[in-house]
Specification:
Helix content is 33%, strand content 25%. With 768 residues, it is an alpha+beta fold. It folds into six domains: 127 residues, Rossmann fold (3-Layer(aba) Sandwich), CATH 3.40.50; 165 residues, Topoisomerase I, domain 2, CATH 1.10.460.10; 119 residues, Topoisomerase I, domain 3; 124 residues, Topoisomerase I, domain 4 (Orthogonal Bundle), CATH 1.10.290.10; 63 residues, no CATH class; 79 residues, no CATH class. Strand 27 and strand 28 form a beta hairpin.
Length: 768
């Protein structure tokens, strides 16, 4: 056989993206002349075990290469590539990854002209092909902004966290940490918790009159002698009832008007997270994970395609092509009456980056129903949310007819208001957003004499500010200019993973540890966790990205005051760490009479005498104890007294029948244990409250060590999974689908649909 020389391999263009999924999707769009590989995330970062920032040399960062095996694959591909396209995400993190890839790969390629930056807003074949015709260069100011943020976070985390651990836990390696932005988020939670603790509920009463003139309707007392009605007590309500019963009731006015409800702007990162939380029950982390899947590519019959545009954005801008596609769909599927006459656009908030479009479907021809077979349950829900919100932006407003009947009941004015949907408009696309209609009779006219069928009064109490939900906290961070679309979800996750906050139902609550850390930071690093200062640093980062500020100037501005605070605190620590920061409680040392301080050691709290080392008295603090962080001290005495009283309670052992069960407290909260060593059975602490879901089990006390909180769940778990964060007092007598929990000095039903409430004294509790 003759000898044949091996033909030279044709050089290919190399495209590098962050994720393998994205690489596979893009690889299907481009022929054999392209090779698409993944960096698998960041390829360089600051070292894990040292500061990695040379402060004296202008905050020069020391970067270490990561994922060396994958880097070797990329190097080999780059050496044999015709051209290298760096196609990482079009944000600060993506730009930094692109620069790091260039820095590493150019050591072997040794040709600056061999590299181009590829940016796109969606992963579809036309978008990728268009991006290849518009290849550009790395945006160095954007890289500088990312580097500055990374160094800022490292300075705070690496220099402050060991000091925090040493002072609060007596050991610099205790693992407590203080994040630059996360600490501000926890502070917001603590501020709200303080507002709730300081809130004093005030009693007030509402009065409804059941009236009729042919058709019945209900009107509420709103004014007395022209002033807003103010019924503070039951006697006030009884007097008002008497006056209304004796009054001549007539219709003073009937007001009718139309209200037009406009569609909301398309989603940006924060509003997507908020809507997914309220409508789908998704956490921000879950929302972003599913959105990433939809963006990077879903396998459809015609091939893999990205279903949504880039999901980290603060811009409500929509491309002209996407607007026209949505308008054509509305015209074809719903008709001209549902199409807004002029294309609707939305105004970005001040400070929005506008690098990306809003979050929208990449093609309105791919409706949620058409792609449902290729999507998982979470993907289907989120895609439907994004799709409907986007198409609705180009639809006509919904039109409501509003009617108000004003009734004279001298000296009182009563009002009945109603609203009915006249034309659904954009709500045709979003039926779940219609809300409740409240029709009132349209036959009632001015001057009509009315008959009073019934009058009822209701006791109410003013309520404290609500705790933030995860989505609500993100909304606050965005409003205050803290964090950016790429960081919101991680902020919420990190503060929970560190044990500084936990979810209580749909709300976020700061833990005792979180409150202690914020207290420490406010005393010694007030500026570091000041929301305005943190927002100002975000603006500095934006200026760096725009080329209007240098990295050095921004870091100097931050580090000067921070270093001074750090040095002052370190000097105090050298004098005696235990005296540097004290958290006094309302407990008094039984041995010497000095106040007891709250202390933290090995992930647990205990009380230690403030006279230490002269007095070494300590008191264990059970993990399920509810302590309140007050203005002057942590309030824990009452909870400890209740725990001590409960500890003396015993119940008969249901396992052996002979033994007695004593109340114990362990790592996972309170429980009963049989005193007979041969039995040693354990049992949960029951509240004595029937489970509102299954009606068979009882709600028992549980403790989550991970979230550091007590909760209550059905003892028939896993057959019944009902659980609630607040302590139940009894089954709601009104609906029997919720339990009464203490709120604002009253007992209210946990079932939001019910709304039943009663005075606290009317219910009794049973600790089991």
């Amino acid at each position: 056989m003759g000898h044949h020389e091996k033909e030279p391999t044709e050089l290919k263009d190399l495209i590098i993206v962050e994720s393998p999924t994205k690489a596979r999707t893009i690889g299907q769009y481009l022929g054999k002349s392209y090779q698409v590989l993944s960096s698998q995330g960041h390829v360089r970062d600051l070292p894990k075990n040292e500061l990695g920032v040379n402060i004296e040399k202008g905050f020069e960062p020391k970067f270490e290469t990561r994922r060396t095996k994958n880097i070797a694959v990329l190097r080999e591909a780059a050496e044999n590539a015709k051209h290298i396209y760096l196609a990482t995400d079009h944000d600060r993190e993506g730009e930094a990854i692109a620069y790091d890839l260039y820095a590493i790969l150019n050591r072997v390629v040794k040709n600056d002209d061999a590299f181009s930056r590829l940016v796109f807003n969606e992963i579809t074949k036309p978008a990728i092909q268009d991006a290849l015709t518009k290849a550009s260069q790395i945006d160095l100011p954007k890289v500088e902004a990312q580097r500055t943020r990374r160094i800022l976070d490292r300075l705070v985390g690496y220099l402050l966290s060991p000091l925090l651990s040493r002072i609060l836990a007596g050991n610099r390696f205790a693992g407590l940490s203080a994040g630059r932005v996360q600490s501000v988020a926890v502070r917001f939670l603590c501020d709200r918790e303080a507002q709730i603790a300081q809130f004093a509920p005030e009693e007030y009463w509402e009065i409804d009159a059941h009236l009729r003139n042919g058709e019945p309707f209900v009107a509420s007392a709103t004014k007395r002698d022209g002033e807003k009605v103010d019924l503070k007590t039951q006697s006030d309500a009884q007097e008002a009832e008497k006056l209304i019963r004796g009054a001549s009731l007539s219709v003073a006015e009937v007001e009718e008007k139309q209200r037009r409800r406009q569609p909301s702007p398309p989603f940006i990162t924060s509003t997507l997270q908020q809507s997914a939380s309220s409508q789908l029950g998704f956490s921000p982390k879950r929302t972003m994970r599913v959105a990433q899947e939809l963006y990077e590519g879903i396998a459809l019959p015609e091939g893999t395609v990205g279903l949504i545009t880039y999901m980290r954005t603060d811009s409500v801008r929509i491309s002209a092509d996407a607007v026209e596609a949505a308008r054509k769909l509305i015209r074809d599927d719903y008709g001209e009456t549902y199409l807004e006459p002029q294309a609707r656009s939305f105004q970005n908030k001040r400070g929005s980056q506008d690098a990306h479009e809003a979050i929208r479907p990449t093609g309105v021809d791919r409706s949620p129903d058409e792609v449902s077979g290729q999507l998982g349950p979470d993907q289907q829900k989120l895609y439907g949310l994004i799709y409907r919100r986007f198409v609705a932006t180009q639809m006509t407003p919904a039109v409501y007819s509003q009617r108000k009947i004003i009734v004279s009941a001298d000296p009182f004015t009563l009002e009945a208001t109603g609203s009915t949907l006249q034309f659904d408009g954009f709500l045709k696309m979003m039926p779940d957003s219609k809300g409740k209609e409240n029709a009132i009779p349209d036959g009632v006219k001015k001057g009509d004499i009315l008959t009073l069928d019934q009058i009822e009064s209701r006791q109410k109490f003013t309520e404290p500010p609500r705790r933030y939900s995860e989505a609500g906290l993100i909304n606050l961070l965005e409003k205050e200019g803290i964090g950016r679309p790429s960081t919101y979800a991680s902020i919420i996750s990190v503060i929970q993973e560190r044990g500084y906050a936990h979810r209580d139902g749909s709300s976020l609550r700061p833990t005792l540890l979180g409150q202690m850390v914020v207290d420490f930071l406010q005393r010694f690093f007030a500026e570091t966790i000041d929301p305005q200062f943190t927002a100002h640093m975000e603006e500095d980062l934006d200026q760096i990205e725009d080329g209007g500020m240098s990295r050095q100037d921004a870091l100097d501005e931050f580090y000067g005051p921070f270093a001074t605070q750090l040095a002052t605190l370190e000097a105090k620590v050298e004098e005696g760490a235990s005296k540097t920061f004290r958290v006094e409680t309302d407990m008094v040392c039984e041995k010497c009479g000095a106040p007891m301080d709250l202390r933290f050691w090995k992930e647990s709290f205990f009380l230690g005498c403030s006279s230490y080392p002269d007095c070494k008295s300590t008191v264990n603090l059970p993990p399920d104890i509810e302590a309140t962080y007050g203005d002057q001290s942590v309030l824990v005495a009452e909870a400890l007294a209740e725990a001590a009283a409960s500890a003396n309670k015993t119940v008969a052992c249901q396992t052996c029948g002979d033994g007695v069960m004593e109340l114990k407290s362990g790592r996972y909260g309170r429980y009963y244990k049989c005193t007979d060593p041969e039995c040693a059975a354990t049992a949960s602490v029951s509240t004595g409250v029937v489970c509102p879901t299954c009606k068979e089990g009882e709600l028992v006390e549980k403790y989550s060590a991970k979230r550091r909180r007590t909760f209550y769940s059905c003892n028939r778990y896993p057959d019944c999974r009902y659980a609630i964060g607040d302590k139940p007092t009894k089954l709601c007598p009104a609906c029997e689908e919720g339990v009464l929990i203490e709120k604002s000095g009253a007992l209210v039903c946990s079932n939001k649909v019910c709304g039943h409430q009663e005075e606290r004294e009317e219910a009794s509790t049973d600790d089991g």
